[in-house]
Amino acid sequence: xxxxxxxxxxxxxxxxxAAGAQTTQGxxxxxxxxxxxRESFNISGAQQMSGLMGSPAQRSGKAYVTSQIGWTGVxxxxxxxxxxxxxxxxGIRLELEGxxxxxxxxxxxxxxxxxxxxxxxxxxxxxxxxxxxxVSLGQVAGVSVAPYLGFxxxxxxVQFERVRGTLASNNTNTRIDSQSNATLAYNLMAxxxxxxxxxxxxxxxxxxxxxxxxINLPQQTYVNNPGTSxxxxxxxxxxxxxxxxxxxxxxxxxxxxxxxATAAPVPAAARAAAPxxxxxxxxxxxxxxxxxxxxxxxxxxxxxKEAATNAQRAxxxxxxxxxxxxxxGDAAYNQRLSQRRAEAVAAQLVRDGVARGAxxxxxxxxxxxxxxxxxxxxxPQNRRVEIVLR
Length: 390
Known about the structure:
Elements: H1 2-14, E1 26-38, E2 41-42, H2 44-53, E3 64-67, E4 70-85, E5 88-110, E6 113-114, E7 116-135, E8 138-140, E9 143-167, E10 172-177, E11 181-195, E12 203-214, E13 219-225, E14 235-241, E15 247-258, E16 283-288, H3 298-313, E17 319-323, H4 331-351, E18 359-363, E19 384-389
Parallel strand pairs: 17-18
Antiparallel strand pairs: 1-4, 1-15, 2-3, 3-5, 4-5, 5-6, 5-7, 7-9, 8-9, 9-10, 9-11, 10-13, 11-12, 12-15, 13-14, 16-19, 17-19
């Protein structure tokens, strides 16, 4: 049931987004922080010792420690690659994170009874290697949105600091203590990034749910009874156990910065070159697109409508539609993107009354820029479709 609940919660973060946003490419730095909910962990070993030392003997019952809501912080360095699967822009990221979590003890139970004078803190820190899959979905209110899922494996160092309490019914004191107990750990992540290129190129905000578990954690448990017990006056027992700790759920806000990103694209990118005034002369129109987009804005449709109207008035027999892309990203992907742009313009010309047989469609990818640039540079004027009336 725990995994089902986590899957439902993860889906709630990933699914409520609209559909081409960017995925992180190249080296990046990220950081995030937020509340940490630590699930209760078992202390049956301490309960067993309390039963041996207590007088009278206790009955069976639940034994566990619960924690207050604490906080967690994560910092990471990583590298991302853009991929192209199923006709969508996707991304893969590898990163190394350092993490910290801290929670104050809320209550302790033995034999189903609350211990008195409870106190203490559990702290966790360590390093984990993560792998993520990003999906580029689109923009909402002008902000690019890219959900992601991730998994990681590494180590955690869990410390129990003065975690203690007294079982009033038999006057036994339980203390859980440890110093630098390292163990294997893993992460499960689900989140969404929101592009902030309009603020700083390469900057994204993230909202993420994260599930963390430390596996087979060693723990030092001490139980004593200052009165008389079956084991003697002021007896002390010591045991090493492996409690079911720690299962943590965190909801974090963060920032991610990708190095080498260029200035954000100019919004509302649909402009037309003035058509030639003399009748019978070929007329050229330019329709511009946002970065990694092939959909038409209202302004773009107006320009295409004008081209279709003039084509019909001048009895044009052929209309050439050529798609282009800038040099950011993979060349093969940009070739397909320029094809989608050209086909979107051709389809709109048909809706505006132009016969499909009169339209020729070509795609040139990033090979014919209006503005020459270096590789991986975003240039708004190169993200275009040219309409030429012949």
